[in-house]
Each structure stands twice: as C-alpha cells, then as structure tokens.
Design brief:
heterodimer, A: 294 residues, mainly alpha, Helix Hairpins, 1% strand, elongated, B: 254 residues, Cytochrome Bc1 Complex, Chain C, 2 domains, 69% helix
Chain lengths: 294, 254
C-alpha cells in the first residue's frame, strides 16, 4: 500500500476517535494495525455479514450492505489506476472481513457503554489509501509575481497625475500661449512655419522633391513601415543586447527626426535660410516675450 | 432607554431601510459597503476591490515589476490623463469661442476679460504640446522595451494610429486662434497634403474647404477638432486599453 502521510493519518484518527468515542492514540494504533479495532454494535449489518459471508461475493444484488457491493462500487475507477484499485479492493475485503469474523462475541460485552452519545453511528468510510492528486489540466504558465493594483499601481499613478497637473498649471501660469496679430491671408510671414512636430518634415521638404519628402517618406516610412514594424521584426528577444539592430534603427530615427526638428524650429530664418538662434543674443527674445511674471 | 439611544436606534433603522431598499441595491453591486448587511469579511473585502469601476481599466492585480515607476514612467497613463485634461479645458473653451471671423476676438476676450480664460487657454495649448511629446515618448519606451512583440503586435499598430490622431487633433486645433501663426502653419501643412500623388489637389481642397485657408477652413477644422477626431480617438483608445489587458497586461521585464 501507498505510504499515508502522517498528517492525513492523524486527521483520520481524530475522526475515527470522535466517531467511536475512543482516544486518538488508540484510534491511531488501530489504524496502524497495532491493536484490535474497536467494534460498535450494529445488529442488522452484523447479522447480514454473519449469515452470508460466502455467497455475497457471487450474488451482490439482494444484500445491500455486504462488503461485496462496496467493493463493486469502487470498480469503475479501475481503468484509471488499475494497480492502486486492486490494492484498495484487497484492503476493503480484508478489513471488512476481520471485524465481521470477530463481531458477534465482542459486540454485546463492552462496546455499547462507550458509544451512548450516538448509538446508531456507523463507520461508513475509512481511509484506505491516498491517491496523489493529479491535475486534469497541465499548468502552462509559470506563476507570476503579482501585487494588488490598489494601492501599488493606483497610488503612484495618482501621484503622477497630480504632478502632471501641477506642472501644467505652473507652465500655463508663467508661459503665455502665443497670439500674434489677426490672421491675414495677404501678409505672409517669412518664414512660415508648420507646428513644431511637422517641422522635421518641412525641413526635409527643403532638401528633396516634395513628392518624396512630403508624401513618400511620411506615408511609407512614417506610417506603413512604422505600423508594420512588429511584423517585420520577428526577433522574439526583448533584451537590448539581443536586438541591437532594432535598437540602433530606432535610435537613428530618433536622432534624425530630432535633429531635423531642432533645425527647423531654431535654425531656419527668412527664406528658410540657416540662421543661428543666438544671433540676437542668447536669451531667446521670443521665448522671453511669452513668459510673463505678474 | 435614553433619548440618545432611541435616536440612535431610529437612525440605524432608517439607514437600514434605505440601504436595504431597492434604490440602493440597484446602484451598488453585491459586496459594496454601501449596501445593507455589509460585514467586514475577507470575501466582502475582495468584492470591494474587484467590483470597483476603475478596474475596467486596470486588472485587480498587476505584475510586480510593472509597478516600478522606472519601467513605464507612467507615460501611457499620462497620455490618457492629458487627453482628459484637454477634453475638460476644451469643453470649457468652447463656451467662449465661435469658429467665425470673431474667433480672434473671442481668443482676445478669453485672454483679457474672462476669468481664468488665459490660464485655461494656456493649459489647453501647452497640454496639447505635452500630449504630443508624451505620446511620442510612450512609443519610444514601448519600442526600447520590445513591448510591441507578440502577442502585442496589433496594439502597436493601434498605438501608431493613436499617435497619428494625436497629431491631427493638435494640427486642427492649431488653426483655431485664427492669428498669423495659426493660418500660416496650417497653410504650410495643408500645402504638404497637396503633394499627395494623383489626388493631391482634391485632398488640399477638402482640407481647406477651398483653395486657401479661410473662415470656411476654420469651421471645418473646428468640427474636426472638437467632434470628429475626439470621437475617433476615443474608439481607438478603448481598443488600445482593452488590448493591453487582453494581451496579458504590461510586457515582461528585460
């Protein structure tokens, strides 16, 4: 038989001790086969076993409480754990027969007094063996170290939101949004500049044909290639040292776009000619105009 | 029984009757502390956490490494938050702005006569620039972590669309002050669209509602800015956030 873990034996012994009204030590000893099992009076059942010990095995139908049907009920499991089940069946037969044989003399002498709290109590189950649990599903995922979203994520997020709000209000309080004179289609400023995030494009437009710089590069590179990037880069690695080309590619893109944008924003003057932003002093007069301390 | 005790009892009874009533049980889901018969049990505690409306955005639990501020820098959340700030300030600005010849006057009034007008306009403008920046930084963060890799490829695609929509929102808003900066920036941008092969002229005409930037363009950009693009971007944001969760939350550590 399979070795039964001590804590299960202990639990079983406690249950048995409670049911039979004996001490736990004794129940434990009985279960380990070190002492004779305590018997409780169960007249009807005992009689049945006494009268039909042999035929019960062949004709299980009429005698509902004979050991044979009990053994039968276990059989459906057989297919799965053939070896274990035969052991179980054997165990059932042995353990049921031993008390059956010894029943009649012992019963009426000493047992009834001890079980006065529940004279009808029947031992309907006992620990025969412990089948180790096998999961039906195989766990595919490794368990992940997780924490509760509240407060571990929500709190930092809240702080970030507050910080962003404070920063934005501070910025808005000291930095006045530009407002030039009213729109006039007849007066073209020189240079006319797009919003800063398009100035890299506008800078490229000054180098190449607008069909290439204004249309092909933004749509093909900027949109299609950009969206398709995860489908082009099939390298599953995420560590930077194992995807050097991708990292390099993006960094070059960042550097290029950044350089073009900075040139477009700061270094382009009238006629889209190169100017140095510090030509009128390093303090960026335009920027100072925007800032107002009141 | 003292008066105080009776008062206490009456109040408890009334409170129970109200909290156990149909109205409160219809508002608060099972396990809510606002319902009648709430007891401080582990089951109810977990209900309080799990039935929270905020967990439509976040799961109940997140990976421990994802909570580290240095991993995400909160950039995605801040993008969303800036969008909310822009929505709120934008709705406020809509009360004082007419997309007509009066647009410039309205902006001047906002800056000079309307309480907090200057502050809210500044918040809207700098917030918009910040959002472009933060969305771009968010994309860069995702790229450097390789967070666009399977199974998150499609969410990257949605992210690029969101970046494009952010730029379009910012660009359409750029015209609304109706000053020299606005009209000429949009003229330059619109002229770039005119270089589209085959249908360039049509695209430019559609964008400007004419051959050049006029008040008709202003109205067109206004509607695109306050209604059309926000509508589209909210749909894409919903899919984006949903995919973040469906693809297994935040990506793994490097």
């Amino acid at each position: 038989m399979v070795d039964i873990p001590e804590h299960l034996l202990q639990r079983s012994a406690e249950a048995r001790a409670k049911a039979l009204g004996i001490s736990i030590e004794q129940a434990m000893a009985e279960m380990k086969g070190q002492s004779d099992p305590t018997i409780i009076s169960k007249e009807p059942e005992v009689k049945v076993i006494d009268e039909t010990p042999a035929p019960a095995a062949e004709t299980p139908a009429p005698a509902a409480e004979t050991p044979a049907p009990a053994a039968k009920t276990i059989t459906p499991i057989k297919e799965e754990h053939a070896a274990e089940t035969t052991e179980k069946v054997a165990a059932v037969k042995i353990e049921e027969k031993v008390p059956a044989a010894k029943t009649s003399p012992v019963v009426k002498t000493d047992a009834p007094d001890e079980v006065d709290f529940a004279p009808e109590v029947k031992v309907t189950q006992r620990l025969l063996t412990v089948v180790k649990a096998k999961p039906i599903q195989k766990p595919v995922k490794e368990p992940i170290d997780k924490v509760n979203t509240w407060p571990h994520l929500m709190l930092p997020e809240f702080v970030a939101l507050m910080a962003m709000t404070a920063f934005l209000i501070f910025l808005s309080a000291i930095l006045q949004a530009p407002l030039l004179e009213e729109a006039n289609p007849n007066v073209t400023p020189n240079p006319a500049k797009a919003p800063w995030y398009f100035l890299g494009l506008q800078e490229m437009l000054s180098y190449w044909d607008p069909q290439i710089a204004g249309v092909m590069i933004p749509t093909v590179v900027g949109l299609i290639l950009w969206m398709a990037f995860p489908y082009i880069d099939r390298n599953p690695e995420t560590h930077p040292s194992k995807r050097k080309f991708a990292i390099m590619f993006y960094t070059f893109f960042l550097a290029g776009a950044g350089t073009l944008t900075i040139i477009g924003v700061l270094f382009r003057g009238p006629g889209w000619n190169w100017v140095y932003p510090w030509i009128d002093g390093i303090w960026f007069d335009d920027l100072l105009d925007w800032i107002h301390f009141e | 029984m003292s008066f105080r005790d009776r008062l206490k009892e009456t109040r408890a009874k009334a409170s129970d009757g109200f909290r156990g009533g149909k109205l409160m049980s219809s508002i608060f889901r099972p396990g809510s502390p606002f319902r009648k018969g709430y007891v401080d049990s582990p089951r109810n505690r977990s209900y309080v956490v799990m039935n929270n409306v905020l967990y439509h955005l976040h799961p109940v639990k997140v990976k421990r490494h994802g909570v580290r501020l240095s991993y995400t820098l909160c950039l995605g959340g801040l993008s969303f938050f800036l969008f909310i700030v822009l929505t709120i300030t934008g709705i406020w600005l809509m009360f004082y702005f007419r997309p007509t010849e009066l647009a410039y006057v309205d902006i001047q009034n906002l800056q000079t006569t309307i309480a907090f007008g200057s502050l809210v306009r500044n918040m809207h403008r700098w917030g918009a620039h910040l959002m472009v920046l933060v969305v771009f930084l968010h994309m860069s963060r995702v790229f450097y972590h390789g967070a666009y890799k399977a199974p998150r490829e499609f969410n990257w695609v949605i992210g690029v669309i969101l970046l494009l929509l952010t730029l379009l929102l910012s660009f359409t808003g750029y015209l609304l002050p109706w000053d020299q900066l606005a009209i000429w920036a949009v003229t330059v941008g619109g002229n770039m669209a005119g270089y589209v092969p085959v249908v360039g002229a049509q695209v430019k005409f559609g964008l400007f509602a004419g051959l050049e930037a006029t008040t008709a363009t202003l109205l067109r950009f206004y509607v695109l800015h306050v209604l059309f693009f926000p509508f589209i971007i909210v749909i894409f944001m919903a899919v984006h956030f949903w995919r973040v969760r469906k693809d297994g939350g935040i990506s793994g550590p490097l």
